[in-house]
Amino acid sequence: MLAFKAFIYLVFLCLFTQKVLFTRFSLVKGLDYLLVIFLAKYVIWILLGGGFRPGLFTENNFEIMLVLFWALTVWSLEGNLTLKQWVLLTIVIFLSGSRSGVVSYFALLCILLIRQFDWKTILKLAFWA
Fold this sequence. Notes:
The chain is mainly alpha-helical. The chain is 71% helix and 0% strand. It has six helices and no strands. α2 runs antiparallel to α3 and α3 packs antiparallel against α4 (83-96).
């Protein structure tokens, strides 16, 4: 059953097609609250000496993906993220201790911030890396 959980989620999501579950305002505010909650969670975990990988489980990549996809959703709705959202998102990603989360964060940055993708952009990215 665990192997097919994505399909089970898909069945439940299909039940909500053509329905407005969240407003634009609730998604933007939700991202703000989510970032503050994750920041508090990671700071408290690190201060309590729980180790470098904060979280209840040893793997927190799924929660980092939630934050990144939610930020991507807000970006697509608003056309940008506020400075506060960028700062909190960056801090949360790096405090998470997830290497794949950091790579995903930089991939998200490249996708969102590069307006024109051509061979010059590839050279700039290669030089920057």
